[in-house]
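Sequence of Helix-turn-helix transcriptional regulator (Aestuariivirga litoralis).
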Amino acid sequence: MKPRLPTLIIIMLAGQIVCALIFMADVLRDLVDLGGPAWELLPEALASAALFAGIVFTIFYLRQLLRRKATLERSVGLASAALQNVIEQHFDDWKLTPSERDVASLMVKGLSISEIAGVRGSAEGTVKAHLNGIYRKANARNRAEVLSHIMDTLIDRPLLPAEAAQPGPARSAR
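Predicted 3D structure, token representation.
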């Protein structure tokens, strides 16, 4: 997917281009009126050329930023999917029930017992019972140890496949 410039930026660049064309046309008209080169037109001509150069630089830089943003968004998507796979693998290894998986997912996201109960529409006691089952199956004493098991797995192996983690030619340019 090709990155797109937001409409406001396009309008602003179009305005700058129109202004640069007006300034250049004025310089050319003055050159014709004077019958040839005149030193007093040099600052105006240089300013117009600098405006054009700035516009070109801005366009190229914005395109580069948008490509970089798209690359980062793809990387975040890959990392998020890989993280979810690691978490799901732990849940499979621990043989969590569907309810325990649901509670464990919310716990990993950082929700409190009361928040988990609210999201699930269940009593806090039910959530605590599920958490105790999760702790037992994960061979952990508390939430921190469950998260530590997951984090240890993430630290011990790369989250992204090697080819996804390597910057390509467009990715390394800053």
